[in-house]
Design brief:
- The complex is a heterotrimer.
- By secondary structure, chain A is mainly α.
- Helix content of chain A is 72%, strand content 0%.
- In chain A, helix 11 packs across helix 15, helix 13 runs antiparallel to helix 14 and helix 14 crosses helix 15.
- Chain B is mainly α.
- In chain B, strands 1-2 form a two-stranded antiparallel sheet.
- Chain B starts with 10 loop residues before the first helix and ends with a helix.
- Chain C is α+β, with helices and mostly antiparallel strands.
- Chain C has 2 domains: 230 residues, 3-Layer(aba) Sandwich (Rossmann fold), CATH 3.40.50; 111 residues, Beta Barrel (OB fold (Dihydrolipoamide Acetyltransferase, E2P)), CATH 2.40.50.
- Chain C contains 8 helices and 20 strands.
- In chain C, the strands form 4 sheets. In chain C, strands 6-7-8-3-9-10 form a 6-stranded mixed beta sheet, sandwiched between helices.
- In chain C, a hairpin with a 2-residue loop joins strand 12 and strand 13.
- In chain C, helix 2 packs across helix 3.
- The radius of gyration of chain C is 24 Å and the shape is elongated.
- The two termini of chain C are 37 Å apart.
- The chains are: A mainly alpha, B mainly alpha, C alpha+beta.
- At the A-B interface, helix 1, helix 4, helix 5, helix 6 and helix 7 of A face helix 1, helix 3, helix 4, helix 5 and helix 7 of B.
């Protein structure tokens, strides 16, 4: 702001601190809950300072699981990790290749191909769940990582992002490469790919979070509990009858489920912001 | 936009584009067309035979009071989340935009909820407002309100709006902050020289210049509430109590899975597709206009 | 090494836009040829066709004796310096220069020898490990030249290589390019819109306009004897003054009723017909000598350039500029009498805009 007003500054701090408190409080509570035993939570008077059950809760959750499900959460995290990595890496590979084709080549039906990809922006998985489910079932991909990943890696986002980046690469670089004797493969490997690294990293961050947080799709196609992802697992822990819900385990799981994507956002903030802002253009 | 320089040959590009095309056709176009086709069919009770029934599934849908209720629920849910998440985000963004010390740290502290899965966000909020053990439910009940989102539809909706808003503020905050930082300082300074105070400057200069961002975020937020909040609803209320928090998307899921009414579910999917396409088209018109400026 | 021959070369873009309209040109082995013209005149397109970056719609391009119409850029044995340098941003200076040689499977020690040699010539040895973004504009320019030199090509192509540099550096690099080309003796084709660059660099100057060649010649020929009004006003700064005049008889024209003697005038022009009279600002003198032709000028204002002054005003109702050494004419002069040397008068046909000189 233009004026230097101590009061305005104070109000700004106050608002922001209040905002941070509201944003952080639910997570703080979850972390606290993961340090108490079931009884302390159930009686409705959980203290707001950490208890002494953290080690017990986390070891039990990770390696044993809840009383009903009995699925170790560590295994669910492995599943989530495989799905998130699969979606992120798969999407990067297929979309950088298709963007390279669409931007740098002229071939029959190029425009058509672009539009075919582009329109998928408009069809989120939620509107076509059952038919997609049926296809995945017919292909025998239920309860497989391939079935978890494949339907989610094709979308226009990545292709558009790479296309947008490629358009900013000066034409002269391709021309200089041509004169330097580099063909389509060498130009891609030696010039375009190294230049795209930041874009790739930004897309990776966004898609990792997207993949890790998937809910509806894994809910539909995983029936075996050994294929469950952590986000699905936690829901099963709390939907059983109230009295049986082991809140300390549920909240420990919630904390564990938040750790990887939140760490990614905090430590790769610059890439995260870039990815988020640019995929929405 | 077109590149001036191209690489010759067309077998290579076709090979490059093949994986994406294959996946797109198998997992997007085929299911989408199946949804459209199924919406004109009715299956018998055992799912063994189906007959073509034209628009009957659609007609049946519009005779269901539940469908109208889902529409109303969706409308209320979207407008509340849009209003709260946009206004809170704008407030926080304007404060963070002031050149105060530690501004960057606040940004980090405010954006991470984006990374929390919707279902997890829902679980966090149930835990806080659980009628018997919720830390924040106790003071409410102590105040004499019979707080119970498990049984009271209004309470359930409030809880949904809170969790959905909580998760989405970070996104809107980020874009508002970027929008504010894109406004040239000189314009604000000119306003100050013209004698406009901070509040007046905000409403007469900053807010109008921010309106493209606001509009964009409004559309994105509505799309978010329509589709991505599925996880929150499923975790927090499961559409209940008594279907009072069933949105259009949740109903597609519930009717198809629980009810087994694939034709009706497909018809609902088709209607949703039309809504998404309309929203996307609106967004494009906005993008186009932005390009012209 | 080899010369370059263009034979009625055409470029027609989609939508029937003809960017190059049948250009024929022979560029001798080892010479420095500059294509100059305003933007959109087709000079860059022509250069890019020689490089193989644009397809050729008609005609033939030969490098040496080889027709290269269908040859890939990499196989034409040319090197190009781009306006924005087109350095690979992620590669070091060394790798930028070595890349083309590596792709051609040149032995490692040979690459090393050539890169170091080029770096020495261009005085960029201290920067070989740096990335292009850590270099100044002038240094990037040198790297771009180095990338061309190491290849030891038959032809250098330059596409406005100096236009991204500031004025001072541009003059310095201009001199270096000229010196380098003389030392290496490689046929060079250079595109620019800057007529000073064109004059100073070229052995052979090609002035283009509207997809066609207006005139080809040595810089002094083009300056001394412009073939069209376009060339006359494009080459030279400030541009040549063009006055409407009338043919009075053999070797004589008039402007605003004042008689002017002309040395270089086509024979048999009908007296009384309209003609355009061109006079360079630096070719007219103040004061009148007895018996010489003269023109009266009303002066509006004076521009100071330091060593010289520009007098702006009107002759016979038409804008006119005179350049004179500072102090030669009093700055507050309002009326000037200009003496005209018959050898410095250029005549042009008002319809065809072609020079009406001796055949």
């Amino acid at each position: 702001m233009v004026e230097n007003r101590p009061f305005a500054q104070f109000m700004a701090y106050l608002t922001l601190v209040l905002g941070v408190v509201v944003v952080a409080f639910p997570v703080y509570l979850a972390i606290m809950a993961s340090t108490f035993d079931a009884a302390t939570i159930i009686n409705g008077n959980m203290p707001l300072i950490p208890g002494d059950q953290a080690v017990e809760n986390y070891t039990r959750t990770l390696f044993y699981g809840g009383k009903q499900a009995r699925e170790p959460v560590a295994m669910m995290m492995v599943n989530s990790m495989i799905m998130a990595m699969g979606i992120a890496i798969g999407k990067i590979i297929i979309s950088i290749l298709s963007a390279y084709a669409v931007v740098y080549f002229k071939f029959p039906f190029r425009k058509t191909a672009f539009w075919v990809i582009f329109i998928t922006l408009m069809l989120p998985v939620e509107v076509r769940i059952y038919p997609t489910y049926k296809i995945v079932a017919d292909l025998g991909l239920l309860d497989t990582y391939t079935g978890l990943v494949m339907p989610l890696i094709a979308s226009a986002t990545g292709t558009l992002l790479f296309r947008q980046f490629f358009m900013t690469v000066p034409d002269e670089l391709l021309e200089a490469s041509k004169i330097d004797g580099a063909g389509a493969f060498r130009f891609f490997k030696d010039t375009l790919l190294p230049l795209s690294m930041t874009t790739i990293a930004a897309l990776f961050v966004i898609q990792f979070i997207y993949g890790w947080n998937q809910y509806l799709w894994p809910l539909l196609i995983t029936t075996k509990s050994s294929m469950q992802t952590i986000v699905i697992g936690i829901k099963k822990m709390i939907t059983t009858t109230d009295a049986l819900t082991e809140w300390q385990i549920a909240m420990t799981t919630a904390v564990l489920a938040m750790v990887p994507p939140v760490l990614v956002v905090i430590f790769m903030q610059r890439l995260f912001v870039k990815g988020l802002v640019e995929t929405e253009k | 936009m077109e590149k001036r320089a191209h690489i010759s040959g067309w077998t290579l590009p076709l090979l490059l584009i093949l994986p994406q095309m294959a996946i797109t056709v198998i997992f997007f176009y085929w299911p989408a067309s199946q949804a459209i086709w199924q919406s004109f069919l009715r299956e018998d009770a055992f799912g063994l035979a189906s007959e073509f029934v034209g628009f009957e599934n659609y007609a049946a849908l519009f005779e269901q009071p539940e469908y109208y209720r889902a529409m109303v629920t969706t409308a209320i849910f979207s407008s509340l989340v849009a209003f709260f998440s946009l206004s809170c985000a704008l407030l926080l963004a304007t404060q963070a935009d002031k050149s105060i010390r530690g501004g960057h740290a606040f940004k980090t502290l405010l954006i991470w909820p984006y990374a929390v899965a919707p279902a997890i966000a829902g679980v966090l909020w149930i835990f806080m407002f659980h009628p018997t053990l919720g830390t924040l439910a106790r003071p409410i009940r102590a105040a004499g309100i019979d707080w119970n989102p498990m049984l009271n539809g209004t309470h359930a909706m409030i809880l949904l709006v809170l969790s959905a808003t909580w998760k989405h503020i970070s996104y809107n905050f980020l874009f508002f902050l970027a929008g504010l930082q894109a406004i040239p300082r000189s314009v604000i300074e000119a306003g100050a020289i013209d004698g406009a105070g901070p509040m007046r400057r905000f409403w007469t200069i900053v807010f109008p210049l921010l309106s493209p961002t606001t509009f964009f975020l409004l559309v994105v937020t509505v799309v978010y509430v329509f589709f991505e909040t599925f996880g929150i609803i499923d975790a927090v209320t499961g559409g209940g109590p008594a279907g009072q928090t069933t949105t259009l998307v949740y109903k597609v899921y519930a009717d198809g899975r629980l009810g087994g009414d694939l034709g009706g579910s497909a018809a609902q999917s088709v209607i949703l597709m039309v809504i998404v396409i309309a929203l996307t088209a609106i967004q494009f018109r906005y993008v186009e206009r932005k390009v012209q400026y | 090494m080899a010369g370059v021959t263009l034979d009625t070369v055409r470029k027609i873009y989609a939508g029937n836009v003809e960017a190059v309209k049948g250009v024929s040109l022979g560029i001798e082995d080892g010479s420095f040829c500059v294509l100059v013209g305003p933007s959109g005149c087709g000079k860059s397109t022509l250069l890019r066709m020689i490089a193989g970056l644009e397809t050729i719609s008609g005609g033939e391009i030969r490098i040496g004796d080889r027709v290269v119409n269908q040859v890939e850029p990499a196989d034409r044995d040319i090197a190009m310096v781009f306006q924005n340098y087109a350095l690979y941003p992620h590669m070091s200076v060394y790798d930028n220069m070595a890349y083309g040689l590596r792709n051609r499977k040149t032995p490692k020690d040979e690459i090393d020898k050539r890169v170091k040699e080029a770096a020495r010539i261009l005085a960029i040895e201290p920067f070989l490990d740096r990335k292009p973004r850590a270099l100044s504009g002038g240094q990037r320019q040198r790297v771009a030249m180095g990338r061309a030199i190491v290849r030891k090509p038959q032809v250098f192509l330059f596409d406005e290589p100096l236009s991204n540099l500031d004025a001072k550096l541009r003059v310095q690099m201009r001199v270096e390019i000229k010196r380098l080309q003389k030392a290496l003796g490689v046929t060079s084709i250079y595109v620019t819109h800057d007529q000073v660059e064109a004059m100073t660099l070229s052995d052979k100057l090609v002035v283009m306009s509207g997809g066609q060649i207006e005139q080809v010649g040595s810089p002094s020929e083009v300056y001394r004897r412009p073939e069209t009004r376009f060339v006359a006003t494009f080459i030279g700064s400030p541009p040549m003054n063009i006055l409407p005049g009338k043919v009075e008889g053999p070797g004589r024209v008039s402007v605003g009723g004042q008689m002017i003697a002309v040395t270089d005038m086509r024979e048999g022009l009908a007296p009384g017909s309209a003609i355009e009279v061109g006079l360079r600002p630096e070719d007219v003198q103040a004061g009148s000598a007895p018996g010489a032709s003269s023109l009266d000028m009303d002066v509006d204002f004076v521009e100071e350039l330091g060593a010289t002054q520009l007098f702006h005003g009107k002759v016979a109702g038409t804008d006119f500029v005179v350049q004179a050494s500072t102090g030669q004419i009093a700055a507050d002069t309002r009326k000037l009498t200009l003496s005209i040397d018959p050898g410095n008068v250029h005549l042009f046909d008002p319809q065809t805009t072609k020079r009406l000189g001796r055949v």
